[in-house]
Amino acid sequence: MTTTTHILGYPRIGEKRELKFAQEKYWRGEIDQTELKKVGAHLRQQNWQVQKEAGLSYATAGDFAWYDHVLTTTLLLGHVPKRHRHGFPDLDTLFRVGRGQSQSACGCHGAAASDMTKWFNTNYHYIVPEFSRDDTFEVSWPQLFEEVNEAIQAGHNVKPVLLGPLSYLYLGKEVEEGFERLTLLPRLLSAYQAILAKLAKQGVTWVQIDEPILALELEKPWLDAFKLAYQVIRSEVKVLLTTYFDAVTDCLERVVALDVDGLHIDLAAAPEQLDEVLALLPAHWVLSVGVVNGRNVWRSDLAAQYQRLLPVKAQLGERLWVASSCSLLHSPVDLDLEPALNEEVRSWLAFAKQKVSEVVLLGRALDGNEDAIAQCAVYSQPIQARKSASHVHKPQVQARVNAISPAFAKRSAPYAQRAAHQAEVLKLPLLPTTTIGSFPQTAEIRVQRSAYRAGQLSQAEYTQALKEHIADAVKRQEALDLDVLVHGEAERNDMVEYFAENLAGFQTTQFGWVQSYGSRCVKPAIVVADIEREQPITVEWSKYAQSLTSKQMKGMLTGPVTILCWTFPREDISRKAIAQQLALALRDEVTDLQQAGINIIQIDEPAIREGLPLKKRDHQAYLDWAVESFRIAAGSAKPETQIHTHMCYSEFNEIIESVAALDADVITIETSRSNMELLKAFEEFNYPNEIGPGVYDIHSPNIPTEEWIVDLIQKAAQKIPLERLWVNPDCGLKTRSWPETEAALANLVAAAKTLRKSLTEV
Ligand code: GLN
Ligand code: ZN
User: Label partner for 84 (CA 20 to 30 A): which of 64, 478, 639, 745?
Assistant: First the structure.
């Protein structure tokens, strides 16, 4: 009665981000397609080898992607947006859809990239499929079949993975008015029939079809469509229907009526669904239990999992499959690449490669292998010990969290009173100008940082270099005549990593990269223990910057929710508890900044919307503690200290009440790309405090003209009273160069001055 073991997918980026570097070389024209494809083939072989050597029953194929797996599906289905179709599609077609095509490159009209958006509640982003009424689907792109063949040739027992037809449709959007993309389903299903027929011919017995949308609160027409869809694509290949990121109990009765051969559920995200699923599982189905968390970095408690699954094994026998909860795409590749980690921390963690071994070991234990059972027990010891370790659960941190009272989350005066105090202290003109925090991270800064990290630059030398960058930024801002200055964030590599490195309770890694989108990867820090601020973090920098100018210097912090969302959280305490610990640490920083003479403090929360849970019914509870933790961080500010916050990535409409509930004195937001459309939400809601709608899209190299900015401010002024309006770019400027930054900011300041003048004239 051997237990089948598998994973839903393996990271495609390579141990040292080989795919990223190869892609970028190819895009720069430094290597050709043959060479790029070699890198991909090598990575796939490596990944399958890891799975085989560890002893998984299947090697997963079809999880590799040149840019994004949803985009691969688009190509597979012959569904390239019309503007990108020139002749037979090849790898360049795929890259064009993902990255856009400039005019010069093709000698014809440029063509915009498809939109990109977040993959459920992860930090991975996919390319949004575009649907029009007359779309057709035709299997033309051979990648999947070639890769299945590659795996077979290399002697692997291959299980291909496909994004399911309903999730593919659902995750896309109509690009034409007056039609519903669900009406395309019949045509789409013919393509899926063709895909499955081809896979059958290749000798595939099981295919994994991902339908993650089943974990959402799915609208009825979509749910209704599943039954027929899976009847239509029924073939001789067995189908494992995979769901992840949340429970499927809402629609379980429908799911178990589908014409498939097995179901995968995510027991890391929603462990409570197991019993219900077991009760309804059809007698001939396999159940793949996703117990090894594919999207976090923690070692599984295999001893506990073993105990929990024993009765399930007794009930299901061979029909029990053991798996990762979701694709390992969302976890770093290999813990063995981190020699600098201390042994204790290492014993708490598992990256993708280690997770593969966990799945195998658990499977063996469930098969009654005594050795494996004993190994599971040993493996779990460090996590058991961690539960009562006082350097993880710090009494002093817990005492502070327990002492949080409602007063912590309240400024000492309401906005109207604060605004009056602030006006007196800050003496800002109408339409004050400012920036969002970072200034260009020049090559010089980056070279100095790596030299410092490599030990080639002493602490004193590095500090001196940073001070020079700060002084330079201040001088340039004064020359531009901006009203509220920033120090420029030269000391930060990344707005979250910087705080993670300077707060106790975090562990950073050297190669813990995870794909974010295309060739872009992020390296989230890991929350390993209770979080504490052991000493001030930003105060010296801000104080130094303030000492160089008589204008107001804005302090710059990353908010608790954003730090939480962009790191790997602990699983032994709640997200809310982590956010509270962060909030208290940042609150101390606010106190100290204020003490040091900083009158304006910005607490960035660009990720607040991303943290929303998948199911709408869970939204409010999240928003409540997210808002509360921001307010705790800001709560120590005196009435005359002005608290700013900043958010990007639009779509605030659905959370506008919570944005207002942050009660920041000023919010700066990204609106320039939508031509101030976004302000509608703030207008309709009657947003009470001050707003700086971004008047300059920092993501584009174009320099906005003064007239353009004047026009945007006037548009904004129709919605927000002038006295509450700020003028600023829509995000930080770290990715831009100094010349373009200065040119754009000069126009921004000129626009504000022109408007002030015209207002005093009337
Ligand atoms: N203060 C940060 C910066 O300017 C904000 C970045 C962000 O919103 N993502 O870089
Ligand atoms: Zn931003």
Answer: 64
Residue to mutate, 434, 438, 728, 730, ligand 1, most ligand atoms under 8 Å from C-beta: 438
- Whether residue 103 is predicted with pLDDT greater than 70 in this model: the reply is no
262 lines ligand 1 (CB under 6 A): no
Q: Which residue has the tokens 């010349």?
A: 739
Sign of the C-alpha dihedral computed for residues 455, 456, 461 and 467 taken in this order: negative
Mutate to test the pocket of ligand 1, among 489, 493, 731, 736 (most ligand atoms within 8 A of CB): 731
pLDDT, tens only, 386-404: 999 999 999 999 999 999 9
Structure tokens at 709: 């900015």
pTM, 2 dp: 0.95
Per the model's pLDDT, the better-predicted residue between 232 and 672 turns out to be: 232
Q: Which ligand is nearest to the CA of 490?
A: 1
Tokens of 172: 């896309």
Same fold? 4-386, 434-761: yes
Distance of alpha carbon 157 from alpha carbon 148, whole angstroms: 10
C-beta separation of 295 from 330 below 8 A = yes
Asked if pLDDT for residue 112 goes beyond 90, the answer is no
Instruction: Report pLDDT digits (tens) over 81-98.
Output: 999 998 889 999 999 999
Any ligand 1 atom below 6 A from CB of 559: no
Classified as helix, coil or strand, 357 is helix
Q: Is 556 in the pocket of ligand 1 (CB under 6 A)?
A: yes
Give residue-wise pLDDT tens across range 289-323. 999 999 999 999 999 999 999 999 999 999 999 99
The CATH number given to 434-761 is: 3.20.20.210
- E-strand stretches of 135-228: 158-163, 173-174, 206-210
Specify whether 699 is catalytic: yes
> 596-655: per-residue pLDDT in tens?
999 999 999 999 999 999 999 999 999 999 999 999 999 999 999 999 999 986 677 889
- Ion ligand 2 — residues with CB under 5 Å? 606, 648, 731
Secondary structure letter of residue 440 according to DSSP: -
Instruction: Give pLDDT tens digits for 439-483.
Output: 999 999 999 999 999 999 999 999 999 999 999 999 999 999 999
Which residue, judged by its Cα, is nearest atom 6 of ligand 1? 732
- 483 CB within 6 A, ligand 1: no
The 10s digit of each residue's pLDDT in 205-222 is 999 999 999 999 999 999
Which residue among 436, 487, 494, 554 is best mutated to probe the pocket of ligand 1, counting the most ligand atoms within 8 A of its Cβ? 436
Q: Is CATH 3.20.20.210 the right assignment for the domain spanning 4-386?
A: yes
| Helix, strand, coil percentages, rounded to 5, for the chain | 45, 15, 40
The beta-strand segments (E) located in 9-90 are 59-61
Distance 459 CA to ligand 2 centre (A): 30
Q: Whose CA is nearest to atom 9 of ligand 1?
A: 606
Contact 150, 193 (CB under 8 A): no
Give the containing element (helix H, strand E) for 333: none
Ligand 1 in reach of 731 Cβ (< 6 A): yes
Q: Is 488 in the pocket of ligand 1 (CB under 6 A)?
A: no
Q: Strand runs (DSSP E) across 575-627, as ranges?
A: 600-604
Closest CA to 750 of 717, 703, 716: 703
The gap from C-alpha 148 to its chain's centroid, in whole angstroms, comes to 29
Residues 80, 82, 86, CA angle at the centre, nearest 5°? Answer: 85
520 assigned binding-site residue: yes
Q: What are the extents of the domains in the chain?
A: 4-386, 434-761
pLDDT value, residue 704 = 94
Contact 457, 465 (CB under 8 A): yes
Going by pLDDT thresholds of 50, 70 and 90, the confidence category of residue 678 is: confident
Collapsing DSSP to helix, strand or coil, 289 comes out as strand
Instruction: Decide: helix, strand or coil at residue 178.
Output: coil
DSSP state of 577: H
Q: What is the average pLDDT score of the chain?
A: 96
